[in-house]
Amino acid sequence: MLRYAVKRIMTGILSLFVLATVTFFLVRLIPGSPFxxxxxxxxxxxxxxxxxxxxxxxxxxxxxYMAGLLQGDLGISYQDPxxxxxxxIARAWPLTASLGTAALIVSLLAGTGLGILKVMxxxxxxxxxxxxxxxxxxxxxxFAAAILLLLVFSVKLKLFPASGLYTLSSYVLPVISLSLYPxxxxxxxxxxxxxxxxxxxxxxxxxxxxxxxxxxxxxxxLKNAFLPVLSYAGPAFAYLLTGSFVVESxxxxxxxxxxxxxxxSSRDYTLILGLTVFMGTVVILVNLAADxxxxxxxxxxxxxxxxxxx
Amino acid sequence: xGNTKGHLAGRNRxxxxxxxxxxxxxxxxxxxxxxxxxxxxEQNARIQNLGPSFSHLFGTDRFGRDIFxxxxxxxxxxxLVGMASALINGCIGVAVGAVSGYAGRAADMxxxxxxxxxxxxxxxxxxxxxxxxxxxxxxxxxxGLCVAGWIDMARIVRGEIIRLKNSDFALxxxxxxxxxxRILFRHLLPNAAGPAAVNxxxxxxxxxxxxxxxxxxxxGIAAPAASLGTIIQEARxxxxxxxxxxxxxxxxxxxxxxxxxxxxxxxxxxxxxxRCE
Lengths: 310, 277
Known about the structure:
heterodimer, A: mainly alpha, MetI-like fold, 13 helices, flat, B: mainly alpha, 11 helices, 0% strand, elongated
């Protein structure tokens, strides 16, 4: 277990390093200076660039950026001088995190429930309906769903607020549009894993013992079927973060996603860089935690690893 | 498989519908901009924001452009991006997976660790940065999609090759003295074609989705060119007054994605069924 954990953590650190490095150089490669707009004279641009350390050679800039990164300093926003990127993240992250957490909980509950229902139901129509709904939810892009929900429920029916994140009811539409896709994925994973578990011998034994189908699924098979779902945690977080770009800009929520979209259109490089590094880090850490947790719960993962190495 | 005949027939009908929809979509995407009466980019101030009618099936946008023509032009760009990037990612993935699986040892270790690292960072972030560096356009989106799009394919092909490498027929081929390159290309890769094909099909809707997502954010295909995502983005500013300007491209995009995903799912089921038998 320890060897697996060390190796996995090393890969995680390497990923973080690659992420920060690649992002730094890509952002520096973006053509044009962020200060060139609006007839500013060359000398002023140079003065500003000196202030931000942009006149230094690239390797020096890179080293000072990485040194700052280690201390949690992501630099200062270009477009909003006086505000550090860390402050912007601290302001916007809680909104995005609360939306994402709500969407994650909804999709876990709905996905698990629908997955169980699909396996347990004796009616074929139920299974078909869940499959069809799953395909629709997986196929329709999140932004399309968000727009349609906004048009129907906020604009036409006026049931939910169209913007902001002030009351509980304003969470409903963004959370639904964010959780559609993960719900579809979790439902499918859950149903497949449960169906596979139901064919195993311990289930046969439980049935021979006289346990009901419901008891078998809920107390025996469900535990084992959760592992594949755990491996989806990383991709789910990545989806929720990138999904927040569009959902937050459609529902005008001042979260991380909207900051990111704004920073792109205003060419605010430090902010783009900082937000990319921050979001990448979140996803890498979630992946890491999910893998370690899976190895803790399932001895087969540890054993496979040991077998492959030795 | 436990499939009854009726079930299989139902799946076949569903597959036929998906294929037919995709065929119609491709034909419309090619024919409407080429043979249609309107241009997808020419502006006409006298026919701004017209509702749907016989002469303009989806109406016109705020620059007086025919939305029907624009939507199909955009669908063509979306499909082009999807298919081109799927093809490139497929080739890279098969190559990396084959080398990694067949060579093993250090090559396998390095390639798979590199894949792990690239895969652990959300690919959308790379694609956005690359389109910012290269400038918005079809080429930079395809390039961005190719940074991380090959990884699933490489993992699948690698797994298949490792499984097949030690099978009896591969061993027999090696004992015959057939060069290893020939074994890989003639004996192992064709047997890995099934799972690879499934992945290749699913790469297309993924790429179409990513492109639409980026264009919707304003970092994808830039004006005057247009993809479905761009058209949806352009309609957003007046979506409350003229919702059809947004709903038409939205529906075309969703139906396209559903058809592509449906074809992928059915091919996947069919291959899994063949394997079980």
